[in-house]
Amino acid sequence: MTEANSNIPNIAEILAGALRNIDPKLQPMLLAKLERLAARRYRIWASGHADQATKDGLLACADREDEIASRVESLEPNASAIQDKLLSDHPELLDLNRTLFAGRPLKIQFAMQAEGERAGAAAWRGYAAAASDPTVQELLLGCSPLEQTNADFLQTLL
Predict the structure, then answer these.
(1) Does any domain span residue 1?
(2) Residue 131, exposed/middle/buried by CB under 10 A (0-12, 13-18, 19+)?
(3) Quick check: helix, strand or coil at residue 40?
(4) 47-55: long-range contacts (C-beta < 8 A, 24 or more apart)?
(5) What is the extent of the structural domain holding 72?
(6) Cβ neighbours around 156 below 10 Å, total
């Protein structure tokens, strides 16, 4: 790890720690909510970017995050209520989302988000492997390449 990278929080570890206290059956719903929060972050980054190609790329990332969330939320008719309850029971997750990126240079934020996207891709593959319904497996597995595409795009900005 380079000295510049030593100040970057390990998103995979932070995500794993956050999910550890959540019922495994509910984790995908929470992760879907975190995808929505990431989409919002991408849109904020895009709104502050002058380069149109970068702005378009960030907006495409936001759209992919929303697509992942929509897919996963489609598995549960009460997804929104479940997500609200999870966040109510674990307010530290919203605090973490607000503070983790705050005050860091944009390139560091991009590096952090890219790591989070790769961790998300692995998480969706894991949830798919654990699912017993082939339709659910396919839906969850389809989230992984969307995460990886976002990670790949962010890597181009570094």
Answers:
(1) no
(2) middle
(3) helix
(4) 54/157
(5) 9-157
(6) 11
Residue 4 covered by a domain: no
Structurally, the chain folds into a number of domains equal to 1
The phi-psi region of residue 35 (left if phi > 0; otherwise alpha if psi is between -120 and 50; otherwise beta) is alpha
Tokens of 25: 């059956």
The answer as to whether 121 is a domain residue is yes
Asked if residue 120 has pLDDT above 80, the reply is: yes
76-108 core/surface letters (b: 16 or more CB in 10 A; e: else): beebeebbeebbeeeeebeebbeeebeeeeeeb
pLDDT digits (tens, 9 = 90+) for 13-71: 888 888 888 999 999 999 999 999 999 999 999 999 899 999 999 999 999 999 999 99
% of the chain residues with pLDDT over 70: 96
| Nearest CA among 149, 130, 117 for reference residue 35 | 117
The pLDDT score that the predictor gives to residue 1 is 39
Residue 2 belongs to some domain of the structure: no
CB 62 within 8 A of CB 42: yes
User: Could you tell me the pTM of the whole model?
Assistant: 0.91
